[in-house]
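Intended use. Records like the one below are meant for learning the mapping from a protein sequence to its folded structure. Do not use them to infer anything beyond what is encoded.
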Amino acid sequence: MTTGRSISMALAILAAGLVLILAPATAQGPIFGRIEGANTLAPGQVSAYNLTIEGGPTGAVTYTVRWYLTGPNVAGGIPTTSPMTTTGNRTTFRLNITAPSAEQTMMLVVQISSAVGSTYENTTADKSIVVITPIVLSATFRNDGTTAAVNVTVRFYVDSILAGTEKIARLNPGAQITETFNYLPAGLQPGTHQVRVEADLDGNGVIDPAKGEAVVSSLFYRGTAPLSTAWTVLIAIGVFLPVFFVTVAVRRRQRA
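Structure written out for the chain above:
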């Protein structure tokens, strides 16, 4: 009796084992790629984008990545008709591109292929990028103090939103220097806009005129015409004067 029961239990265990062996393995999630990088580029600007691959087969996977630009007029862009290709066993890749010369909304297209043994999976990822001519923000600083200014933080704002930061390494007494920043006005609506420039001597984010720190603002107007003709905003300010005069000029710069 005991022997029969043991045999029955052994058969049940064997059957359960067969079911486990015959059951399909848990499916791996689908492969996909995530592209990270600048949303806006100037014509001809060189930039790098980071690709992260997730999901797909596991194990000793070899990835093949091909990428290219597509859009209304991608002449001058790299790569376009001949995609760039790279391979590797890693899941992160750096993709270099050059923006085309014409303003437009283009697409960075990335084709991803994964292979491990006889298993292959493919997918495509893309990222929309705006190509637009920059607005040149330019501020001239004059040191009317008696000591040199070192490592001055210059902040450029457009409509109270930080556009970018530059550094004045050194400005000697009696000298002046001009700092410029190329602002990419993606989404900037036609109409009047404010540009503000700050000179922060100690870099603490607070402008204190008693220390000779300066802030100045002016207005410029963007018309309804395309920004293929860039605007140059010129702001001249004195850095160390408790009271300083500001001259502002706005001119349109024709592209070559």
